Amino acid sequence: WLGDTWWMGLSTRLDWPDGFQWLAQDRIQKGFNVIQIIAGPYPDMDVWDPRGQSEAGFPFTENFASINPEHYNLADQKFAYLVESGLTPCIVGMWGYYLPQLGVDKIKRYWRYLIARYGAYPVVWCIAGEATMPYYLSENKDAEGAQQREGWTEVMRYVRDTDPFHNIITIHPTQFGRDQVSEPELLSFDMLQTGHSDLETVPNVITTVRRSLEREPPMPVVNGEVNYEGILGRAWQNIQRLCFYHTVMNGAAGHTYGANGIWQFNGDDKPYGPSPHGRAWGNTPWREAAALPGSAQLGRGAALWRTLPWWEMRPHPEWVKTSKEPDDPYGTVCAGIPERLRVIYSPMAWDAPTVLGVESSVRYTAMYFDPVKGEKIDLGEVKPDANGSWTPPLPPEVHDWLLILNAES
Predict the structure, then answer these.
(1) What is the structure's pLDDT at 254?
(2) Is the whole-model pTM more than 0.85?
(3) DSSP secondary structure letter of residue 175
(4) Nearest partner of 51 among 267, 231, 235, judged by Cα
(5) Among 308, 154, 295, 192, which Cα is nearest to 236's?
C-alpha cells in the first residue's frame, strides 16, 4: 500500500478530466496504488462551504434532506477512471464531525447508497475521517466525541453487514483507528495518523506503529496520514523518507503520502485559504505540489519493498549496532527473516552500519539501496568476523541508505 491523499478530489478544485487524469497518471508512474478520497462532506470547512462543491453542487441537498445524485453521477466517472487505471480508491464516507448533524440513521442510508454505487469495484471503505474529533469550534467536544465514537461503530457494523462484496474496512483516526470505535474487531486494518510536526513527529511514527502491532486484536497497520510534504513550510523529502522507512521497517503493511497543496487542491490563483480555526496550512498550487521530490522517492521505496517478502519480515534490533534510543529518528533499524534476509535502514549514514550476529551457516550477498535516486550498489559477498560481525564499505554520499543482505540459495 502506497497511498496518496486527495481528500477534496471530487470537488471543482481538481478539474475533470484534465487535472484529475493527469494527476492519476503521475501517481501511477511514481508507483502509487491507492488514492484516499472523500465521497461526502469535507474536513476543514462547514458543510455548505462553496469550496466543497463539485460541478453538480454538494453531496447532499439543503439540511441533509436527501442525497444529490448528480454529484455522484460525476463521481462515477472519477472512481471508474481510478479503478480502470489500476488505482484502488480508499473511499472516505465523510468527516467524522458531521455525524451529530446527520444522525446515524441517515448516515446508514448514505453508506447503503455508496455500497450500491461502488461496492463492486475493488475499493477500501474508510468509514469516516478523524472519526471521533468534534468540529473544530465545538463548545461541547467531550459529549460529541463520545457520540461520534458510538455512532461510527454502529455505522461500521452496518457497512460490514450490508456490503455483499466484503470490501476491506477501516476508519481514519486522530491516532489509532481502533480507538475511534468501540468494537475494533470490525476493522480490517488499523489506520494511523501520526502527526504533522516535521522531524518532531518521527518518534511518534515509530512508537505508534509498534504499539499498534502489539495491540489486540492483531491486525495489519497502515500509516494513513503523516507530515504532508511542504505543510507549514516544512516536512520536505528527507522527512518523507524517514516517515516511510520507519513505518515499513517497524512492520506496517503500508504508508500514505500527502502533499500540502494536493489534499485541498490549491489552484494557481485560487488557494484554499484558511480553515475554520482561521489559519491556512499552506497555499502551494497542487500541480507544483505534485512535483515535490518526496512522492517520487517514496515510490522508489515502495518499488523496492514489493520485491521483498515484506509480510514475513519482523523487526530485529539485535542484528545491528546502534547507540541511539529506540524512537530516535536517526537510529539505525533492522528487519528481516532469519537465515534469509536482512534489511538495515541507516537514516544518517555518516558511518557504515555494523551488522551483528551474521549466521555462519549462511552465505549472504549485500547491496546498498539509495532511497533518493533508487539506485543499487552491489557489495558482493558478506564476510563476517569470527563473532558474526560485518561492516560494509561506506556508501558514496552522506544521507540515508538501506543495506540489504540476501541469503544465496
Answers:
(1) 98
(2) yes
(3) S
(4) 267
(5) 295
